[in-house]
Write the structure tokens for this entry.
Amino acid sequence: MGSDPHAPLVLTDPAGATARGTSAQPGADRPPPAAARAFNAANAAFRTGRWQAACAAAETALQAAPDLVVAAVLLGRARDRLGEAEAALAAYDRAVAQDPACFDAHLERGNLLRRTGRADAARDAYRAAIRARPADTRGHLALARLEEEAGDGPARERAAVAFAAALDRAADASERAGLHRTLAGFRRERGDLPAALDSLRQADLTLAAAGAGATGAACALALDQAEVLLRLGLVPQAEAAMQRSSAATDEAVLRRLADLAYRFNYWQEAIAVLRRNADLRPDDSAARLAVAEMLERSWRPGEALVALERAEALGPVPEETGQRLRAQIAKALGDVETARSIYARLAKQAPERYAPGLAMLTLYSDRLSPAEVAMLHRRLFAPLGAEAAGAPRRRRKGKTRRPLRVGMVTPDLHRQHPVALLLEPLLEHWDRERLPLTLYFTGTMVDAVTRRARARVDGWRMVTPAGLPDSVADDEIDILIDLSGHTAGNAMAAFARRLAPVQISYLGYPGSTGVPNIDWLVGDPVVTPPEHDALCSERVLRLPDTVFCYTPTEDYKLPDFAARMADRPLTFGSFNNLPKLSGRTVRLWSAVLRDQPKARLLLKAPSLGDPAAAAWVRGLFAAEGVATERIECRGPTGLAEMMGEYADIDIALDPVPYNGGMTTLQAMWMGVPVLTLAGGSFVARMGASFMSGAGLGDWVATNEEDFVARARSLAADRAALVTLKAGLRDRLRASPAWDGARFARGFAEALETAWAES
């Protein structure tokens, strides 16, 4: 298309719709061939997300044809995607100067002005767009959005008038329903979920009145409703909407439904939806690949591998996708080294996508020293700070008596997530007068825990990582705390460019991030002793007790330990995920089991619901001389059921080098002490921190021989073990490390120290 000088100029906007009413060159039917070729190249680059290339090609087109309006509009769009707001505005202004009736230039200019907080100028731009093309619903809809965002009564009235004008210009019921749905998206984006739900219901009524209640559009609409209802906590209504959307045959709707189901913990339903989609398309390898990916995400690695091989038999699977999926399957089975080797290759090809996963995998590896792990983190993430090199920190101007403003960033605030569980006592006892707190929620999973967190902070922002810089700057945050590290949905790239004067890593990542411009890492004297400071790219901010505080709000009943233990063999156990089952861990635990031949080992992990994973694990222990019948494997359950299953364990064993975190704290709360081995890094010393904080230093081994000897000694006196288990929860309640109010005070003091010393 772009290589033929006689090819027609492709006047389509980057979203794929025809740029209606946009003149290519006033007074001429077609631009010079060189300009046409350059514009088509710019358009192609834009469509594939190559913004710099799109800018360069659009500028070339404008050099060949200075009055090529569509090239100026496209240049503005590309500059906008690069975050170059003023350059984008200049391009739109150029388009308007050439063609005052250019609808697209006015509309895009208004959108940019709205996003950058210039509401009056945006309003003028939208009105100009409406004058240029009165029948186009997009101008009226954009104006309605702007007025709604203003929030006051008169603006709301103007918004209603503008939206009514958009509805009046819709061609049919389907387009009117689409307008309601788009408005719902705008409302959902700014966090007004009740209003979004109202728009979606209006769309539903519009389709039903037109007799289109069972169409693909209706199924897609039901899916939108389901997401909003889930985020509002209206679960029965959401499930009914999901059921309606499941009648779809459109692949895009079914994939969206599966993704929504998975995000809100309907794993089995997500798998079933994708299997139905694959059955509708029996020769489509991509559909079968989607099943494999969902099985892997749902911790069913054996089935995922079978589905992947079936997809490969149907047709070619993208090499990168297949490799990534095989790495994830290996990780879910506990084969971390295979996963790490695959991710190392992928990270060389696409570091922005695979460096976080590779970094996480190094934490599980028993083949890398703590120094090697630290060095790799710094090497992987040093490029993230390139754009911020030499940038001065924003500081509060002049002397002010206002308190420090603190922000926290996380996508993980739902019930079973460790971040949500461990953040609860801190938020519950947070001193909001001393340190006003804003929480930037970048996730989508919303439940009672999310809503409780929202009620405990001064400010609540639902944003994307891309929207963080503006939001944090508008709130004038002094100290910003990342709660994700390199886990899914993180905002490390934004932190690396610096969002706030002081930036801190806490809770979401067990160790140094290696990310530039993360100033502090929160630790404690045990998990991050001073002699380990060199392992951290951040300065270490040590809390007085333990790094994490766990004070569950649910009432988990303790069992009668004496009765439960009387008629069963000594039972060791672990509820940690299989990636923590390193070769060293298997050898260490096998040594304990060989030393105590009548004991057994109970393992519970999401992957162990998969027979292939359970067989793999039993085989690992069999290779160390432990009979498979001594290893019990259990799959996933709900949180309350899992907590109850701790009654089946006498002594928990901590994996190495990646200790248990949430699982250790939960085990202790349920009366199960944890035998741990103190290692050489944050992730390998969490168990030592928790047990020391509970006053159980005799449960911390110094080496592998000591670990086996302590297991023997602690198991020998069953009466003493029963007494310890029965009183462990009361011991924790009396410990400073498990006192939420004390923890929050110590955390506040630490933040003030970080500010003073930064």
